[in-house]
Design a protein that fits this description.
Radius of gyration: 27 Å
Distance between the termini: 7 Å
Strand content: 25-35%
Order of helices and strands: EHEEEEEEEEEEEEEEEEEEEEEHHE
Number of strands: 23
C-alpha cells in the first residue's frame, strides 16, 4: 500500500487579523514619521539657515519660472532629497543665483567642506552650478562647480564661511523650452567644528561727525569679523526624560552671561541635522515630532548675543527615567525609552503571523 501527503492551506481568521494589524501599524509609522525642519532654519545645525538674496532667472523659453519652484525658503534646512515641485528653488537661466547664510559657520576641514543637494533625477540632463563662499557676505571666493548633487572644498585661504552663493551655469542648449536650470534643495556644511571668527555683525556706516574719524575700511580688508560679546560658560545637559514615544524633555544648567540657548540634535553621534536656534533664556525644552525607534543625540549651547559657548558635556550611558542615554556629546534617546515600541510591535506581529500561518495548515493523509 502506498500513500500521498496532501497539504491544504486554510487561512484562519487569526492569520488575517494579524496581517491587518501589521498593515495598520505600518501606516501609522509612516504617517507619524517626522519631516523635521525641512525648508526651515536649523540654528547650530549643518544646514543653511537664511536666504540673503536671490536673483532668479527665467525658463529657457523666456517665461517666468513656475511659482511652485520659486520659493527660495525651500533651499533652507534639511534637504527633502526629492524632485517634487514645491520642495526646492530653481535658479533659472542664464545665470540665476541665490545667497544663503549659515548661523553656524562652514569650517575648513579634511576633504570636502560643503555639499549642495540638487533635486533633478536621472535620466534628465545633468545640471550644473558655480559655488562661492564668503565670511562677510561681501567678498566671495569661488570654490568650484557642482553637477547635480556635489561637494566642494574650501581653499586653505578660507578657514570658515558664513555665506554661500550658488549660480546656475547649466547650458540650456540641450534642454526643453520649459527647463529652468539648477534646482537647489539644500546646502549642508560637512564640517561644523573648527577655528573661526564668530557670526559677522553688520558693518557700521562711515562716520560723518567731522571729528576726524576715518571711514570704515572696505569690507573684506580687515580680516574675519569678531564678536565683541563675552563668551558664556558651558552648560551641562542633564539626562533625557522620555515623555512619550515621540517626545522628550531636555534640561540643562544655567550659565552666564547668556541671552538664549540653542539645541542641536541628530540621529548619529556628533552629527546634528536638526536644531532649535533660540529656546529663549530658559533651562528646559521639550522636543516633539521625533520618530519612534530612532536614537537621537542632543547637545546644547549657551549664546550671548552673537557669541556661542562651547558644546555641552558628554553624558555617559545609563538608564534614567525610562530613557537610555548614550556616551555622546549631549544625550541620546535610545529608541526613545529603550523600548523601540513601533518596530518591536511590528516584529512581534510578524512572528505571531508566522506561527498562525504555519498552524493554519491542515495535513490530510490520503491512502491509496
Amino acid at each position: 500500500m502506498s500513500y500521498n501527503i496532501k497539504a491544504y492551506l486554510y487561512p484562519s481568521f487569526a492569520y488575517l487579523l494579524g496581517v491587518a494589524v501589521f498593515i495598520l501599524l505600518l501606516i501609522i509609522g509612516l504617517i507619524t514619521a517626522p519631516y523635521v525642519l525641512a525648508a526651515t532654519a536649523d540654528g547650530i545645525g549643518p544646514w543653511a539657515d537664511e536666504v540673503v538674496t536671490t536673483s532668479q532667472g527665467v525658463r529657457k523659453d523666456g517665461s517666468p519660472v513656475n511659482a511652485d519652484r520659486s520659493d527660495s525658503s525651500q533651499a533652507l534646512g534639511v534637504a527633502e532629497d526629492t524632485d517634487v515641485d514645491g520642495t526646492f528653488y530653481s535658479l533659472g537661466f542664464p545665470s540665476g543665483s541665490m545667497t544663503l547664510k549659515f548661523t553656524n559657520p562652514i569650517y575648513n576641514g579634511s576633504g570636502a567642506d560643503l555639499k549642495i543637494i540638487e533635486s533633478t533625477r536621472m535620466p534628465y540632463e545633468l545640471e550644473t552650478a558655480n559655488v562661492e563662499v564668503s565670511t562677510d557676505g561681501v567678498s566671495f571666493t569661488s570654490v568650484g562647480s557642482v553637477t547635480q548633487d556635489g561637494e566642494v572644498e574650501l581653499p586653505t585661504s578660507v578657514t570658515c564661511a558664513y555665506f554661500v552663493r550658488i549660480t546656475n551655469t547649466t547650458n540650456p542648449e540641450t534642454y526643453e523650452d520649459t527647463a529652468d536650470g539648477y534646482d537647489v534643495d539644500g546646502v549642508q556644511a560637512l564640517h561644523t567644528e573648527g577655528t573661526c571668527g564668530s557670526e559677522p555683525s553688520p558693518t557700521p556706516s562711515p562716520s560723518s561727525s567731522g571729528g576726524g574719524t576715518d571711514p570704515t575700511p572696505p569690507p573684506g580688508t580687515g580680516g574675519a569679523p569678531v564678536c565683541g560679546q563675552v563668551k558664556p560658560g558651558t552648560p551641562t545637559l542633564l539626562p533625557v526624560t522620555k515623555v512619550n514615544p515621540t517626545t522628550v524633555a531636555l534640561a540643562w544648567t544655567a550659565v552666564s552671561p547668556v541671552t538664549h540657548y540653542t539645541l542641536s540634535y541628530g540621529t548619529a553621534p556628533g552629527v546634528y541635522a536638526y536644531g532649535v536656534a533660540n529656546t529663549g533664556n530658559v533651562t528646559n525644552f521639550t522636543v516633539s515630532g521625533l520618530q519612534p525607534g530612532v536614537t537621537y543625540y542632543f547637545t546644547v549651547y549657551a549664546v550671548n548675543d552673537c557669541q556661542p559657548s562651547d558644546k555641552s558635556n558628554e553624558v555617559n550611558s545609563g538608564q534614567v527615567l525610562g530613557a537610555s542615554t548614550g556616551d555622546v556629546l549631549g544625550a541620546s534617546t535610545d529608541t526613545l525609552g529603550g523600548t523601540g515600541v513601533f518596530w518591536e510591535t511590528v516584529l512581534s506581529v510578524l512572528a505571531l503571523s508566522g506561527v498562525i500561518f504555519s498552524g493554519a495548515y491542515l495535513i490530510k493523509r490520503a491512502y491509496v
